[in-house]
Specification:
Length: 525
């Protein structure tokens, strides 16, 4: 960290953003380690999201035996033949067979492994979607908690809930309890992960936010091989919950040692805590500043707003009405988050139908996201946030349209499989961009609630996504859902032209600053 340098600071008031830029312009290794450690929780979140893809695997030949003469007289050597006998021809019932899978599965335990059993398949998809119902609840509640008890405290509460729900899954034996646990997992994981992302963006000066965002999205990709490893090496689906709970604890441990965001303290009027937090960050970066020298100027005074503003839900709602630009920007981001999650999770929960091997699908998807994240960091640095989003959204639309074509490539692969994986690359790039862009568009006074609304919209898309790929594909021509995704993508592209570029600009702290930054905005690409 180096020898601390003493500073003689003039009695000049600085805004919280100016203080953070000043003391973090040359962050020490210790400070960088603290900020980056907050991001590893995203690996645990990704692992938790996709765990059910491996817990609910279908039985393989040899995983069942006949226990009646009627069953022995019927040829059921494959899963398709077994399911036809159970649900199409109805010559057998579950009483005629005994399931003895080498790898346990909730699909077997809860009898939802046959595609011909439409009710069972819907119940199976609901398990994945319930996670995002919980995520929506967690984010909507986070809109209150992030701005009332703080980013760090909200994340800690989310971690406790996520670990508890995941650990209880070790003893789960009923479908109803499974649904409840998946919902609680969603609440905890997204309350925790989103709180840490907001915290990370608020702690860093503008020149480092793009790289920090890239690191967060890269860490998310680590969750893919981890969940694939858990699914492969842990053969009992209940014990997979146990392994995942330990992984969440491991990734969430740094939360105990983090400082609260000074921006949060300042916007809630807790100036003493903000000054103390700034002093600790300065010391961490090798700068000694006397606490008395830290004078924080309120952004609301510089922007000519109400000097007596008090952070509250009522005040936030009033400002959404008083500043239509803030409302409109939020609505555009909500639509973009919805589309991105709809397609992202639709594909990621549908690899068993889109590619020949589900393990291979997740490994390729994880690698694709990793490369996409690296590309985003360079692209955003080169052409900015807004133009990057427009570009990746347009390429996503092209991939959706190409996926409609029926072209067999052999060995179980077709043009749809390849185009879907390529499309996931661009969708992942959009996801990476909108996390960064949303954190910079929203003012500190509303960042928690804007993230809650935007990411909450994404959870609705996350809930619907698995039904689109796993169920709607089989009910209608695939061109219908892919066409809808393409249309929504074009709407998002149109909305992007309204938004301002935030590249290399200080994040706003109040709605008045959001309005003021549009003074020089142009609608060109």
């Amino acid at each position: 960290m180096g020898k601390p340098t003493h500073m003689n600071v003039e009695e000049e008031a600085r805004t919280i953003g100016e203080w953070m830029s000043h003391i973090s312009s040359r962050p020490s290794k210790c400070f960088v380690l603290m900020v980056m450690s907050a991001s590893i929780i995203w690996a645990a979140c990704a692992t938790s999201v996709y765990l059910t893809s491996f817990q609910g695997r279908d039985p393989e030949p040899g995983d069942w035996v006949c226990v009646t003469d009627l069953c022995k007289s019927v040829n059921i050597s494959t899963l398709t033949q077994l399911c036809d006998s159970l649900y199409v021809n109805k010559t057998l019932t579950m009483a005629d067979i005994k399931m003895q899978p080498k790898r346990t599965s909730f699909a077997v335990d809860f009898n939802m492994f046959c595609k011909a059993d439409k009710a069972g398949q819907a119940k199976k998809t609901l398990i994945s979607s319930m996670y995002f119902t919980g995520a929506l609840i967690g984010l909507l509640s986070g809109g209150y908690f992030y701005d009332s008890i703080g980013r760090k405290n909200s994340a800690f509460c989310g971690m406790v809930m996520a670990v508890t729900a995941t650990f209880i899954g070790t003893f789960c034996k009923s479908y109803e309890l499974f649904l409840a646990l998946r919902m609680l997992q969603g609440v905890g994981n997204f309350l925790m992960a989103t709180g840490m992302f907001i915290w990370t963006m608020e702690m860093l000066p503008v020149q480092y936010r793009n790289y920090a965002n890239g690191f967060v999205m890269t860490v998310w990709c680590v969750g893919y091989p981890v969940v694939a490893a858990i699914g492969y090496f842990v053969t009992n689906w209940n014990f997979q919950f146990l392994a995942c709970s330990f992984f969440i604890i491991l990734c969430g441990f740094p939360i105990f040692f983090l400082l609260e965001s000074p921006r949060y303290y300042a916007i809630t009027g807790k100036m003493e805590q903000a000054r103390a937090s700034i002093q600790k960050i300065a010391s961490m970066n090798g700068i000694n500043i006397n606490l008395e020298s830290i004078i924080i100027a309120k952004d609301i005074e510089k922007s000519g707003s109400d000097h007596h503003r008090i952070q509250s839900i009522e005040q936030q709602l009033k400002e959404f009405i008083a500043y239509p630009v803030l409302t409109f920007e939020t609505l555009i981001m909500m639509l973009t988050w919805f589309l991105t999650a709809l397609s992202y999770y639709g594909f990621n929960f549908g690899w068993s139908k889109l590619v020949p091997d589900v393990h291979l699908g997740y490994i390729i998807a994880g690698f694709s996201e990793f490369v996409g994240t690296m590309v985003v960091v360079g692209t955003v640095a080169k052409i900015g946030r807004r133009r990057s989003l427009i570009t990746f959204l347009a390429l996503s639309v092209v991939s959706f349209l190409v996926s409609i074509l029926d072209v067999n490539l052999g060995r179980g692969w077709n043009l749809e499989s390849v185009s879907s994986l390529i499309g996931l690359f661009f969708v992942s790039a959009v996801f990476s961009c909108i996390y960064l862009y949303t954190s910079e568009l929203a003012p500190t006074s509303h960042r928690g609630v804007v993230f809650a609304l935007s990411s909450g919209s994404a959870r609705i898309g996350s809930f619907l996504g698995p039904f689109v790929i796993n169920n709607l594909y089989e009910m209608t021509h695939k061109g219908v859902p892919l066409g809808v995704l393409s249309f929504l993508g074009l709407m998002c592209i149109a909305g992007m032209f309204y938004l301002v570029e935030t590249n290399d600009k200080e994040i706003p702290n109040t709605p008045a600053q959001v309005k003021a930054r549009r003074a020089y905005h142009t609608y060109r690409f």
